[in-house]
Specification:
Order of helices and strands: HEEEEEEHEH
Radius of gyration: 18 Å
Shape: globular
Structural class: alpha+beta
Largest sheet: 3 strands, antiparallel
Number of domains: 2
Strand order of the largest sheet: 4-5-6
Helix content: 40-55%
Number of strands: 7
Oligomer: single chain
């Protein structure tokens, strides 16, 4: 589906770069972003779960408000700060977290294995492209 080998390579390179960035952030337990204001940083917890999650619910807490984002149709999302809805989502997130493995800051061996597995998937994708 790619129009050029270069486009495919750029995407795979971006995935490799993302894995490198995520691994460093998981190791340090800090998420960092550069923007026009400089470097922004906050705490970061990364978990591994063997449970297939069919949604992508994100919660952000700031100034005593909880914002819940739910994705739909791939690139769209809904956002609410309804306390009742956010509380229900928080319970679900905590239940998932309790059944998952913390990869950030601790679990060095498991973190290494997780990122090795992701890099192997990218390498397999590269090899698959060249064998077609």
């Amino acid at each position: 589906m790619f129009t050029s080998k270069e486009d495919f390579e750029k995407i795979c390179d971006d995935l490799d770069n993302l894995m490198n960035k995520l691994e460093k952030e998981a190791e340090s337990g800090r998420k960092s972003v550069n923007n026009e204001l400089g470097m922004l940083s906050s705490g970061f917890e990364m978990y591994q779960s063997d449970i297939f999650i069919s949604n992508n619910c994100i919660q952000a807490n700031t100034n005593n408000e909880t914002y819940t984002y739910i994705t739909f149709n791939s690139f769209n999302h809904l956002m609410t700060y309804s306390p009742e809805f956010s509380e229900e989502c928080q319970k679900w997130i905590e239940q998932m977290r309790s059944k998952s493995i913390l990869l950030s800051e601790v679990s060095e061996k498991l973190r290494f294995q997780f990122f090795l597995s992701q890099r192997n998937k990218i390498a397999h994708l590269r090899n698959l492209f060249y064998t077609l």
